[in-house]
Amino acid sequence: MKLYVTYGSPYARLARMIVIEKGLEDSVEIIEAKTRTPDSPYYQINPSGRVPYLVDDAGLGMEDSQLICAYLDDLDGKPRFHEASHTSDWTYLRFEFAARSMCDGIAVWGREMARPENERSPTTLAHEAARAQRMADFFEDRATDPLMQGPPGMAHLILAVAVEMAHKRGLGDLTIGRRRLASWMHSISDRPSMRKTVPPQTRSTR
Ligand SMILES: N[C@@H](CCC(=O)N[C@@H](CS)C(=O)NCC(=O)O)C(=O)O
């Protein structure tokens, strides 16, 4: 299989993490795609031009981290990050979708910062920076919840990727002054899948 990524994309990072978590490194080739470039050859592979994009052994392509992570996790028939019990666990699902929302906002902030300075919208930047702080407060309040302390699902991976992206991209360390979130981040950041996929220190999430 081939997994198209950029190394700054939080969504591609999630797919790369599942590859590591599920021991799929030998069967999934990671390929860096050229995104946001007119006439990129990548558009012949994935017309949307987004990453991540997975081409399976039959040559079928699929996009979106949510789908790709679920697909990779289920390849051995024993999904660990998409447990069947989670599909009807509304507490878990609220947690996962709040983490996705936080991640989306920080990605928007990073994308805005990647523009030339005179093209950036201060309104968008301020809006996303404030959203990130509110979401960090939300998770600080829940960091000791048994769900957050339990075995990681996608919700945990997404939250960890979002918080680390904010830090790496220059939006700030959202764990400062949030002791419980800091301690939660400390433990999840030790996972090999987190350590092996640390994004480069740049503002771009392309
Ligand atoms: N909902 C998608 C979002 C993917 C996405 O926005 N990827 C960005 C990188 S962070 C991208 O490919 N941007 C290139 C473009 O928009 O052309 C997912 O979860 O995979």
Describe this structure in words.
With 206 residues, the protein is an alpha+beta fold. Helices cover 51% and strands 7% of the residues. It is built from 9 helices and 4 strands; from the N terminus they run βαβαββααααααα. It has helices at 10-21, 42-45, 65-74, 90-114, 122-142, 146-149, 154-169, 179-188, 192-195; strands spanning 2-5, 29-32, 53-55, 61-63. It has a 4-stranded mixed sheet, covered by helices on one side. Helix 1 links the parallel strand 1 (2-5) and strand 2 (29-32). Helix 1 (10-21) runs parallel beside helix 3 (65-74), helix 4 runs parallel beside helix 7 (154-169) and helix 5 (122-142) crosses helix 8. The radius of gyration is 17 Å and the shape is globular. The mean pLDDT is 95. The chain binds glutathione.
| Percent of residues in helices | 40-55%
| Count of beta strands | 4
Looking at how many chains there are and whether they match, the oligomeric state comes to: single chain
The radius of gyration computed from the alpha-carbon positions, rounded to a whole number of angstroms, is 17 Å
The helix/strand series, from N terminus to C terminus, equals EHEHEEHHHHHHH
Brief sketch in words of this structure:
With 206 residues, the chain is α+β, with helices and mostly antiparallel strands. The chain is built from 9 helices and 4 strands; from the N terminus they run βαβαββααααααα.
